[in-house]
Write a structure and sequence with these properties.
2 domains; alpha/beta; 3-stranded mixed beta sheet; 150 residues; 4-stranded mixed beta sheet; 7 strands
Length: 150
């Protein structure tokens, strides 16, 4: 099944937007590709409330921009912005909501994450919006850090 698969979406909408136990079983049995599935979030994270349904698997394939905004010890903001691309070739097929993105300079990216203290969770935007983020950072006097810069 491909993302936005009409059959899968119809099955979910016919069930009031909820993912049936049967569909969950098919996802876990790999009868429905994880990369294309929607599933209810089963982990109880926020004061015992269920969160869901959520997308499980790869988001739309193509170019992405990773973004992480932190405040350093002095109170100054820093933004990590990097680009990459995901495709069927980068998909790991694991049961999580993500975009397994191929990054050109991943060693430099890891070095910057460790050096500046960025967290391992980040925002992901569709397309390459790195230029717009750089303009935003310049406007608000935020240090923009990127492995894509020379």
């Amino acid at each position: 099944m491909a993302p936005n698969d009409e059959v899968l979406l119809k099955e979910i909408s016919n069930n009031g937007g909820r993912v049936s136990e049967d569909l969950k079983e098919r996802i876990l049995a790999a009868k429905v590709r994880v990369n294309d599935a929607l599933a209810e979030h089963s982990v109880l994270r926020q004061v015992g409330m269920k969160i869901g349904p959520v997308h499980i698997g790869q988001f739309q394939y193509g170019k992405k921009t990773g973004i992480n905004l932190i405040r350093d010890r002095s109170g100054k903001f820093k933004m990590l912005a990097f680009t990459g691309e995901n495709s069927k070739d980068t998909a790991k097929g694991m049961l999580y909501s993500a975009a397994d993105v191929k990054v050109k300079n991943y060693r430099r990216l890891n070095q910057l994450i460790l050096e500046h203290g960025f967290s391992h969770h980040l925002a992901m935007a569709f397309g390459d919006i790195s230029r717009e983020l750089k303009i935003l950072c310049d406007y608000y006097d935020i240090e923009c850090i990127s492995p894509d810069q020379d």
